[in-house]
């Protein structure tokens, strides 16, 4: 009996010892350095999500940017959370699921608005407000009065139909605008500033009161540009594929850089219906291209003409000849008489082409010569009538077609390059 009691006491002591060991292990585990990470990660909450901007329907899956803040600390996508989008194509309410990773756990849902079009978004803007277009867009737009629309770098806007800027509206292009064939970009009384690329297959029309400031590149691919009020160019206009550039009734013009570089492989037209002040810029007219001019070409610039300059007035003729450099042609049309008030000079490499009957005369005996370094070409009857003593020209074989001189007292003196001496043609 005593032996049994001793055995039971031993078993009891051993049991108590085992219980103590188990308790110590549990306590040790609870106090160890490794936490239960699933329990101690921060829980993502809806309050961390900043407002998600509206997006507009474009037929593609839309994934607007999501910003999360943990107090003052911004969370990092791919480190603190990951995103899954749903219902994000059609106009209406899109869904984004935000799942915590790393130090964060839990999944929360946020909604965002998909508008039927960017125009719907524009219509909510008030004068003086600025809105950015940071996605590709296809369609047409009406920019409300006083609203500033910025096209962000990397965005491509394909304009179809008619896009119009209302009064005091501004379109600032930092990306790419493509005016498709048959479409119109009508500045109206608004303003366009181009720091990117505009490609025109349709029409770029500027109405009364508008302004075009070009710091980038505008390329006309068979399109037409109408500039009828204000133009400030620090960039480049480029014409290809039979394009037309109309400059009409400008109130402000500053062409500090190259204004036109026209392709020589296609017939492009630049129509100038007012004075053009190059202001240090360059007007480059390639072969097969035409500058149709009714005003003056003025000051401080360079005309590189390898095509044709058509002028509608005598003043325009003198201006065109004075600034023309290269190997092109200057045509005069719609003028039957020219009364010289200065020496008529035809620069080297330039042909002066008369399409119609014309009489060139001077009542001033001091204006006794015409300085021809290039060519004078008459399609019909061209009469040059001077009361001075003689005509001096600076090249040989310069007169082509029906060109005659009358009332020149002494005759015509010209420099014969072949004989290297002055030749004399007596007056008949």
SSE order and pairing:
Blueprint: H1 2-30, H2 37-40, E1 42-43, E2 55-56, E3 69-70, E4 73-74, E5 81-86, E6 92-100, E7 104-105, E8 107-115, H3 118-122, E9 130-133, E10 137-139, E11 142-143, E12 148-151, E13 156-159, E14 162-165, E15 170-173, E16 176-179, E17 184-186, E18 191-194, E19 197-200, E20 203-205, E21 211-214, E22 217-221, E23 224-227, E24 230-233, E25 236-240, E26 244-247, E27 252-255, E28 258-262, E29 269-272, E30 276-277, E31 282-285, E32 290-293, E33 297-298, E34 302-305, E35 308-311, H4 314-323, E36 324-326, E37 329-332, E38 337-339, E39 345-346, E40 351-354, E41 358-362, E42 371-372, E43 375-386, E44 390-393, E45 399-406, E46 411-416, E47 421-426
Parallel strand pairs: 1-7, 2-8, 9-12, 10-13, 11-14, 12-15, 13-16, 14-17, 15-18, 16-19, 17-20, 18-21, 19-22, 20-23, 21-24, 22-25, 23-26, 24-27, 25-28, 26-29, 28-31, 29-32, 30-33, 31-34, 32-35, 34-36, 35-37, 37-40, 38-41, 39-42, 40-43, 41-43, 43-45, 44-46
Antiparallel strand pairs: 3-4, 5-6, 6-8, 46-47
In words, what does this structure look like?
There is one protein chain. By secondary structure, the chain is mostly beta strands. Among the domains are: 38-115, Sandwich (Immunoglobulin-like); 336-428. Helix content is 11%, strand content 46%. It contains four helices and 47 strands. The chain has a 15-stranded parallel β-sheet that branches. The chain is elongated. Mean pLDDT is 75; it is low at 24-37, 392-398 and 400-409.
